[in-house]
Design goal:
With 398 residues, the chain is an alpha/beta fold. Helices cover 54% and strands 12% of the residues. Bound molecules: flavin-adenine dinucleotide (FAD).
């Protein structure tokens, strides 16, 4: 492990970033990202993926597994993820497990999600390299209930019961997380269902985070006004003496958000441009580092400037690289140049490792494919890095 002052970190070091990949694995990843770089291919892939997810075909699962699945997912079950957890730790990167279900409908589904998440917490507790699990609350409650609460509508008696059951499920998750000392990261979802999620997490965080950060909420910084929301959370944490668990992301649903706002004629909740999002993101990183005695930050990004910013702020304040409240995270299969360079220099960094049946993780895989598509015709960020490493190893001509 190399000590660094934040100035000497080199995220363009692809040798370190891809040292866990054999030449064969590197080539396979390179060709996958080349494929995803083409918008037409991704569009076709998404249509086929959605079709096959709805009308199960025998060939579908093996095909997805052979191509995109293992690039971005740990496996179909917890057990299958173990070797990914171990492999990441050979490079000192930790794992946050993410059972990939989203937007479920029935009580049976909600209970199954809960059971799986409780199992994941147990798995994490028995595994020193898994400090936490993440979860989407739409896996535990009908989305329509969240939508109505967000809009300030009155719930029917039936919906009220669904909400109460949801709250019970959430509390049992938090109780288990606290009992086992494992962190629980609540993902942020679409803005039109987010208020009740925020209220629920805000309600319980003071109780569970007295001694250490157990419950984390996610702040989507492409949304207007989220720096203020973070600051309010901090003030509450100060007043009530708990640790604010803050996972920062830019946000994954921009196009959907803009389209819905346009269709329904309300103000676009997303900041007007990328620069404004970057500014708000970096302001939040600054705020969290400045208040790291009271805020536990997980800087969850593939953006090297926002990552570097945190390392520089830490160095300027003489904070140790392994400060337990100053964490980083990337998604499995993305930005290995950040993860493994940070880990090499002793920072607390984890990969988000989604897992679950292939069909359940299709929406997640679709988002990853879309994110890696080039609209301008240039190479995507990931593809550029892979290309550099392929050339460095002599597997490709410059
Ligand atoms: C560990 C981890 C956990 C995550 N968890 C969640 C989660 O719970 N919820 C969630 O929504 N997302 C989550 N994401 C995804 C995240 O929100 C981003 O979609 C993704 O990481 C890309 O953003 P970036 O910061 O890595 O990099 P960048 O490439 O620098 O930023 C791309 C992002 O900038 C924003 N953006 C781009 N263009 C514009 C524009 N014109 N105007 C305004 N904003 C713009 C968008 O948010 C876009 O996704 C997670 C990501 C990671 C790494």
């Amino acid at each position: 492990m190399e000590e660094t002052d934040g100035q000497t970190l080199d995220f363009s070091n692809t040798e370190l970033a891809f040292s866990h990949k054999s030449d064969r694995e590197l080539k396979k990843t390179y060709w996958l990202f080349r494929f995803m770089n083409q918008p037409a291919m991704v569009r076709i892939g998404n249509v086929l993926g959605n079709f096959a997810a709805r009308f199960p075909l025998r060939l579908f699962d093996p095909l997805i597994k052979e191509t995109i699945f293992y690039q971005f997912c740990g496996g179909t079950s917890l057990l299958e993820c173990q070797h990914v957890v171990d492999r990441l730790y050979t490079k000192r990167a930790l794992t946050i497990l993410d059972f990939g279900v989203e937007a479920k409908d029935t009580e049976d589904d909600f209970n199954r999600t809960l059971e799986e998440s409780l199992r994941a917490l147990e798995f994490a507790a028995s595994n020193p390299n898994v400090p936490g699990i993440s979860t989407k609350l739409t896996g535990y409650v009908p989305t329509v209930v969240l939508e109505k609460l967000h809009a300030g509508e009155v719930l029917s008696a039936h919906e009220q019961i669904a909400w109460e059951r949801f709250e019970e499920r959430f509390v049992s998750l938090c109780n288990k997380a606290q009992e086992l000392g494992v962190s629980l990261f609540v993902d942020a979802e679409e803005s039109w269902i987010q208020d009740p999620i925020d209220r629920l997490v805000d309600k319980y965080m003071p109780f569970y985070n007295k001694e250490k950060p157990i419950v984390y909420n996610t702040y989507q910084l492409y949304r207007k006004g989220r720096l203020e929301y973070l600051k309010n959370g901090y003030e509450k944490a100060e007043a009530e003496q708990f640790i604010l668990g803050a996972k920062l992301v830019r946000g994954a649903y921009m196009e959907k958000e803009r389209q819905r706002a346009k269709e329904k004629g309300y103000e676009d909740p997303i900041l007007p441009n990328k620069e404004a999002t970057d500014r708000q993101y970096d302001d939040c990183v600054r705020f969290c580092v400045e208040h790291c005695d009271r805020v536990s930050l997980v800087n969850s990004t593939h953006n090297s400037a926002s990552t570097k910013l945190q390392t520089e702020l830490m160095a300027a304040r003489n904070l140790p690289n392994d400060h337990p409240h100053l964490n980083f995270s990337q998604l499995l299969g993305m930005s290995d140049n950040l993860t493994f360079n940070l880990a090499h220099h002793g920072y607390c960094v984890a990969k988000y490792v989604p897992y679950g049946p292939v069909r359940e993780v299709m929406p997640y895989l679709t988002r990853r494919a879309t994110e890696n598509t080039s609209i301008t015709g240039d190479m995507s960020r990931e593809l550029k890095l892979l290309h550099t490493e392929m050339v460095r190893r002599g597997l490709l001509k410059a």
